[in-house]
Amino acid sequence: MAMPDPDSVLPRVLMVLVDGLGDVSVPALGDRTPLEVAHTPILDAIAGRLYPYVGVCAAAGLNGLLDPVEPGLACGSDTAHMSLFGYDPRIHYRGRGAFESMGAGISMAPGDIAFKCNFATLDTGSGVVVRRRADRNFEHLGPELCQALDGLRLPNFPEHCVKCRYATEHRCGIAVSGPSLSDAVQGTDPLKDALPLLRCVPEDGSAEAAMTAELVNELSDEIRRVLEEHPVNQQRREQARHGMAAAMVAPTKIIAGR
Q1: Where does the Metalloenzyme domain start and stop, copy by copy (predicted)?
Q2: Residue 164 pairs with which residues in a beta bridge?
């Protein structure tokens, strides 16, 4: 067997994305960012530090600004990462749900749909989402609530299975597997506080999208029922009787994405 020409073999590259490292300035740090204040000699050596008025890098790397997709197009982490790895998000991006769910540890197969979800505070009487993010310090409650939702059965969709995993802060990933699912559905997130929880609607006229919208609405109702009966919310109601404001925990941010 002939060996490949070494000159024709593409080099392998290790790409490390430290997403969000730039951070924001902090008044207590003299309006500097934590990265500016931190002592980072190894990171400086890897990235190469551009010293003022010199115009050249003092180490192994280069510094600069990059538009991940195109100038003027603001990108989230998901679309920016896709572009950096060579996939045009305008062609390949199907929503953040799969990123969140697989990142939380859910295995997905072709045909599954996945959702990025928030635990939020909900006024159960009016159906208004009081706060879209229940609490960023949610690590003590998130795993317990996700465990209660994992394996949830939908009465009108017995062929479909639901998987739920805690992600981080107030977020979790939910994936649904089963026949004839479509990602052509809208979410239930009102996008602002103090607005009603939305109902899922199809984005096209296909039978698959219509069925999936019905499934998502039943999923939302069942999640709300399970969480309403969960000891976490029972405890909140008990606390309300002693002068503390009760809050319902319910997932509101559902974004379709295979």
Answers
A1: 12-255
A2: 174
